[in-house]
Amino acid sequence: MAKIADRYYVIDPWNIIEEGFNPAYSAVSESIFSLGNEYMGIRGYFEEGYQGESLIGSYFNGIYESAKAEGSSYKGIVDRTEFMVNAVNWLNLQISVGEETLIFREEAVKEFTRVLNLKTGVLTRSYIWCMKDGRELKLSFERFLSMKDAHLAGQRVTLTPLNFSGELKLKAGIDFTLIHYMVGKNLWDCDAVESGEDWCSILATTVNTKQSVYSVSHFTGNWTSQSELREEKKIAKEFTFFVTQGKETSLTRLVTNMIRKERTEDTFNVKCLEGRQQLLLLDYDKVKADSAAWWEKMWKDSDIVIEGDELNQQGIRYCIFQMHQTYHGADRGTIIGAKGLTGEAYSGNTFWDTETYCLPFYIFNNPEAARHLLEFRYLTLPEAKERAKALDCEGAFYPIATISGRECCTLWQHASLQLQASTAVAYGIRHYELVTKDEEFVFHIGLPILVEVSRMLATRGDWNADHSYYGYYGVMGPDEFQMMVNNNCYTNFMGKKTLLYTLDVLKRYQKKDPAAYDAFVKEYKLTGQECVNWSTLASNMYIPYDPKTKLFEQHEGYFRLPHLDVDAIPVEDFPLYHHWSYDRIYRNDMIKQPDVLMMMLLHNGDFTEEELKNNYEFYEPRCIHESSLSPSVHSILASQLKKHEEAYQFFGFATRMDLDNYNRNTGEGLHTTSIAAAWMNIVYGFGGMRSDQEKLSFCPSIPAAWQGYSFRICYQGDVIQVHIGTEEASFSTLNGSEIEVLIYNQPVQLSAEMTKISIPELWRGR
């Protein structure tokens, strides 16, 4: 893999530290120092203004705009797309001393530092502003987003004159004039601009989707006077301070941001007024402390400790931090965008990897959040049913990319050919039930999804010419370098699993609550013949497999494709989409990201070790890892196959994909699903955890470079604590529950008392 670390930040176990400012990293740092609380997100831009290139990005989960796409006369091709819209700069500041106004420039500052505290979620920044006349002003900035109340955020600027005393003006306000970078224009209408003593607010509405954001700021500080400034789509308070040499002066801002997603919410104005009134009563330090307490509890349950590897210790904590920032179950109607709330790339859309890569993190760290994440698919089932109709299918066809439930991908070869979003949702429901045993959720929320997805699977596929097997034709699997193929193994296998799981849930529901089951059958017009048909299709699903070699063929004809040595591709050809003609990437056996191997990871217990080994050794050399999700899957399977050195090599940049800017595109926003894959890489990879069968199992190994590592997972109402040393693995439950798991395939009863197990020689990476 020709990916090289671009190491810039100071290595520290609990902080991301930037010492000195380098404009070449400004965009990367804006992403790295992003803050979020699922409800809203803010990039790490300079609130006082920056002379260089900057994406002043402020986003709200579920607030989006729409745009007309290039039209097509073909049915099923999307003609309108949607994207998370850049919203309000509620951090807006301007600082003036005399005739000079501060705009951050490298040559005008010294002693620059920026620190993101992962323990508390507070971002701080400081430097000395050297003015043209020789005066020097030390500035310290602080910001946070509340994790306790997702509507709240805080900002504090502290000013210390080092060699002068005198008057200073600080303008602080709300700015709805932000340009959405991806479309090059502002997308807001301002409905109401108001202010009062020490506060100001704006209510704004998106131009096309008519969603609303209400932002109100409340200021505190020891100013000598204040005045109001208004411009189109902006309001600010200008505060005058008298500052004394060597003494600190601060302005503090508490913010409430409220959103209205649906046009029918006629009580929104009342809620805004109530939110403003409550804000005026709040104390900045108390709100900040409550948020820090949330983080303290989170780290108690979710921390991963790595002994002897400071680089990856910082990396994995940053990943855990970002996963909780991106989503923690605050709102059942929200999703996880591919860049979270850190940038505009991928338009804020969620993809099929949400249920396959991200969901496991929440299942084992915040089960309620996992439930809410799946509920988004329930709430958008009507849109998935409409999409199925557009593609000449029955049931529900979940979009490959969405923010509202509607398909947003304008590339037909992805939007129309990829079934893995639908089967991933079904897989996520099954995975959630296996771990949480939450059968009621599956009966009431999961089953409507499963039935409609099964209907789609029963109408999207077809029988072969002699009617001997069923499969899917004209599809694209997870490997997006193979388009319009027949009987993609992953697609067929996941389709089969979905049909069987749906039938299993229906059977259990009928047995447990016959009356409720009958009502469900009536509501969804489910017939006995339909269920028989699903069973027949599952039994006759074609899975391309060679019993002699134990190889699963990625799709019909894959084994006969021209072979390409991926290691011979010049490094300057990457990324291939930018340097190869579009059709060239489809004309060989090169794989973009794991396809068959992804299937073997998700349903790991269905395959023998010989099958895993043979398929890994066949497909791994053909994979180019053009997706950031790819290396972690290979690392996890390599660990299982006891290829410890290879597993660690693939792990190499998992935890630091964004911190070290491996793909040279961190400035566009963080790779959220890759961050989730880094967590999986440690817990499922080195920890050897498997959760696709009835019992949770572990086969832990330890990389040669580590002295030990530990992780915690939520399971059956308790927290399982795992510590892996160089020779011994230890397991216990935090709250004393007795839980039976498999360790190296042997049943073990866990409890509060530490269970110690020797690591077999083959599982030691040394």
Brief rundown of the structure:
With 766 residues, the protein is α+β, with helices and mostly antiparallel strands. The chain folds into three domains: 33-66 and 80-283, Distorted Sandwich (Beta-galactosidase, Chain A, domain 5); 306-694, Glycosyltransferase; 713-765, no CATH class. A hairpin with a 5-residue loop joins strand 15 and strand 16.
What's the number of helices? Answer: 19
Strand order of the largest sheet: 1-9-10-11-12-19-16-15-14
Architecture per CATH nomenclature, i.e. the level-2 architecture of the largest domain: Alpha/alpha barrel
How is the CATH topology of the largest domain named? Answer: Glycosyltransferase
Q: What percent of residues adopt helix (DSSP H or I)?
A: 25-40%
Radius of gyration: 27 Å
Average pLDDT level: 96
- Uncertain stretches: none
Can you identify the CATH class of the largest domain?
Answer: Mainly Alpha
Helix and strand topology:
Blueprint lengths: L14 E5 L6 H7 L2 E2 L3 E3 L15 E3 L3 E5 L11 E5 L8 E5 L2 E2 L7 E9 L4 E9 L5 E10 L6 E10 L4 E10 L12 E9 L2 E8 L5 E10 L3 E7 L2 E10 L5 E12 L7 H12 L4 H19 L2 E3 L2 H17 L26 H13 L1 H13 L1 H10 L21 H4 L4 H17 L2 H22 L1 E2 L6 E2 L17 H24 L1 H10 L4 H12 L5 E2 L4 E2 L23 H4 L16 H7 L6 H11 L10 H11 L3 H8 L20 H15 L10 E2 L3 E2 L4 E8 L2 E7 L3 E6 L5 E5 L2 E5 L4 E4 L5 E2 L1
Helix pairs in contact: 4-19, 5-6, 5-9, 5-19, 6-9, 6-10, 9-10, 9-11, 10-11, 11-12, 11-13, 17-18, 17-19
